[in-house]
Structure formats: C-alpha cells, structure tokens
Design goal:
The structure is a single chain. The protein has a single domain, classed as Rossmann fold. It has seven helices and nine strands; from the N terminus they run βαβαβαβαβαββαβαβ. Helix 6 links the parallel strand 7 and strand 8. It is an alpha/beta fold and 247 residues long. The strands form two sheets. A seven-stranded parallel beta sheet has the order 3-2-1-4-5-6-9, sandwiched between helices. It has a two-stranded parallel sheet with strand order 7-8. The longest helix has 29 residues.
C-alpha cells in the first residue's frame, strides 16, 4: 500500500532514540522529509545519518515554548511548511516501584505534565496554523497504555491527559483537514531494552513485547492521507491487553 507520504514534511519530537527515532526512520523510508527534534544534538545527528532522505536537525527542549516555536520556524523556513507532527518527546514509563500516596510529591506529576502534556501541546500549537492554512495535516501523539490501567498514578494521569487533549484538538482542527490521533504503546523494545527483557514472554495477546519499529508502523499509517477515517481516537499498539474489551 502506498501511504502517499512522498514529499510530506514531517516533524518528529523525541527523535534521538526509542519510538521517536523509529518513527523518523519509517517516515523517511516512506519518502517523507523528516525534521528531528530533541534536546541532544548528538543523538539527532546520529538519527539523521541513518535516514535515506532529506532531514533537518532542530535541537530544542519542548518544555520551552519559545524554543519550540523557533524550531518550527526553522522547519517552515527551510521547507515552506509542516504536514505531519509526531509528538514522542517524553520519558518512558518508569520500571521503578510506584510510591505510595503519602510519598508521592507534587513534582513527580508536575514534571511529567510539563514534558508530555504541555510539551505536546506546545508543538501542536506551533504547527497547527501552518496545517490549517494549507487545509491538510496530521498530528500523532505517542502516549501509553498506562492510560487504561491503574497502579501508576503519574503514568495514568499524564497519558489520559494526552488522550483528552488529542480529542479536543481533533474536534477543533478536523474541519480544516487536520487529523489528530493518539497511539498508546505498551512496554516496548527499544535500543535501551536489555536482551533478556526483549526475549522474555510478555503478558499481552501476542506473547512478546512489541518493538519500537512495530509501534512506528502504526504511527506512520496515522500520519498518512489514508488515515482520514481515524481522528480524535486512541489506538493501542501494545500487542493486545489480555482480559480487556475496549469499545
């Protein structure tokens, strides 16, 4: 299937590693021009060296609104616009023990909201005028399956907030040709995952962990013109949650 992404101008945040990097690679393989955003220039340049097509390296911290706007201005100045935004600049869910309520400080949640929720909002706010002016765009927010589970208060709250933001943006931007969706990965194999963990059986429906590249396949479809029927909703990409029916 031709995803019709050849020549599309994409901005991927969190592109230095993990799911963000995998998405950047898949988009480039589909013919998109990819601008790479993260805090580490070295990581971005390493990603750029692996892309088969045109790319831009735009280091920025998504907790800084001025830095985000400057980065988007650089992309627009170089390429004339932005067609696709993938928000993936967030820390992965921690494997550390979850603190009890009495030990959970405000900053634990504040830091996650600042990076994942407000960071995603800043990027969407900066690119949306360019997308609506041209009458077409795609925004995909990488969130997480903690949105559908208890046991990690901070993880649940941040990911539910991303899904709620996505639905609201989709409603506002949809009449202008811009689709906005959420992708909820579960535990995912990335370059930081040990070989033992990657090879271990998983408690999902496919019996193994999903890889970053497999999550990226879902994200990249949602970035394409062929995904027009999907907007405002959250798509799970974690190998299927056992014992749950989502409707």
């Amino acid at each position: 299937m031709d995803l019709r992404l050849t020549g599309k101008r994409a901005l991927v945040t969190g592109a230095g590693r993990g799911i963000g990097k995998a998405v950047a690679l898949r988009l480039a393989e589909e013919g998109a021009q990819v601008a790479l955003l993260a805090r580490s220039r070295d990581q971005l340049e390493a990603t750029a060296a692996q892309l088969p097509g045109p790319s831009l390296v735009v280091p920025a911290d998504t907790t800084d609104d001025a830095a985000v706007r400057t980065a988007v201005d650089v992309v627009v100045g170089a390429w004339g616009g932005v067609d696709v935004l993938v928000n993936a600049a967030a820390r992965p869910a921690s494997s550390a023990p979850v603190p009890a309520l009495a030990d959970l400080g405000d900053d634990a949640l504040r830091a996650e909201v600042e990076t994942k929720v407000l960071g995603y909002l800043r990027c969407a706010r900066a690119v949306a005028p360019h997308m609506t002016a041209q009458g077409w765009g795609r925004i995909v927010n990488v969130s997480g399956l903690n949105a559908r589970a208890t046991g990690n208060l901070v993880g649940t709250v941040r990911n539910v907030a991303v899904a709620a933001m996505t639905a609201n943006l989709a409603e506002e931007l949809g009449p202008h040709g811009v689709n906005v969706t959420t992708v909820h990965p579960g535990a995912t194999v990335t370059e930081r995952t040990s070989a033992d963990v990657a090879a271990a059986p998983a408690g999902n429906r496919i019996g193994r962990l999903v890889t970053a590249g497999e999550v990226a396949d879902v994200v990249v479809f949602l970035c394409s013109p062929r995904s027009v029927a999907v907007t405002g909703d959250a798509v799970a990409a974690g190998g299927g949650t056992r014992g749950v029916a989502v409707y």
